[in-house]
């Protein structure tokens, strides 16, 4: 029995039409890596995981009775939301923190982390999506992340944001629903751009035409139980309404803003 499982699958109704993903749910490291040479305080920061997302995902999965896949290793070890050839896959410096255990790093060690943590997580996502789509009806995939309240001293005004590439199907109604609350500032591809070649949604949704969206919630809003419960209360009915839309259960490939898909000469949209 391995001493560290790189993913957790929360079981739910696989015929229900929805799957939740949480790439950066946890700040854990396998025992053999110690702390990567970092102080314990580093693992309470955003550089280690997406604060609040694990508990938010668990609450939503329970309320909606849908399956979810959680990443169980810290992004400091290897980032599951990056392509295998992405230069930020294993960070040497993150928001001013030098990561001694990642620099220098050998090709053999990089490969070991891919084989032992990154790839098993993505195989778990693949299996979960295949099981949820076994009937031929595409599952709606909603990926949960969180972002810092400020960056380099500049406050971020958004309470939450929706990130996406070009598949707008789930994005437009999700933005509309979130913006019904006049007290919320909702970003559209802010503070990050959702088009990232090789990331989780590119790999599992863009290339296959699976409907999806990525939701970021500001970390100070889900940093405690009360905030997590508030956002679960807000998001559960919104996600449920999205899931009732038949158009969000059809496979339809959209071109990526990052360029042609592997093996494709030029980007093109097809049903």
Automatic annotation (TrEMBL):
Protein name in the entry: N-formylglutamate amidohydrolase
Listed SUPFAM superfamilies: Zn-dependent exopeptidases
Family matches, as InterPro entries: N-FG_amidohydro, UCP029730
Name of a matching Pfam family: FGase
């Amino acid at each position: 029995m391995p001493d560290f499982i790189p993913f957790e699958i929360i079981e739910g109704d696989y015929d229900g039409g929805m799957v939740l993903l949480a790439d950066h749910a946890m700040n854990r490291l396998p025992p053999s890596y110690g702390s990567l040479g970092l102080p314990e305080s580093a693992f309470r920061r955003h550089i280690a995981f997406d604060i609040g997302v694990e508990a938010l995902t668990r609450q939503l999965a329970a309320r909606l009775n849908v399956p979810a896949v959680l990443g169980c290793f810290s992004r400091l070890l290897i980032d599951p939301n990056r392509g295998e050839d992405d230069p930020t896959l294993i960070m040497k410096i993150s928001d001013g923190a030098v990561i001694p255990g990642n620099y220098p790093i050998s090709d053999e060690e990089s490969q070991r982390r891919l084989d032992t943590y990154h790839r098993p997580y993505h195989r778990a996502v693949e299996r979960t999506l295949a099981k949820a789509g076994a009937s031929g009806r595409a599952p709606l995939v909603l990926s949960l992340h969180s972002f810092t309240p400020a960056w380099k001293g500049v406050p971020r005004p958004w309470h939450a944001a929706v990130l996406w590439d070009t598949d707008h199907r789930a994005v437009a109604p999700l933005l509309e629903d979130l913006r019904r609350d006049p007290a919320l500032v909702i970003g559209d591809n802010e503070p990050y751009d959702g088009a990232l070649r090789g990331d989780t949604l590119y790999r599992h949704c863009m290339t296959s035409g699976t409907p999806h969206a990525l939701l970021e919630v500001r970390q100070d809003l889900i940093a405690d139980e009360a905030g997590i419960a508030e956002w679960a209360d807000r998001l559960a009915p919104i996600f449920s309404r999205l899931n009732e839309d038949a158009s969000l259960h059809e496979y339809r490939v959209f071109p990526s803003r990052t360029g042609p898909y592997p093996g494709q000469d030029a980007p093109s949209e097809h049903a």
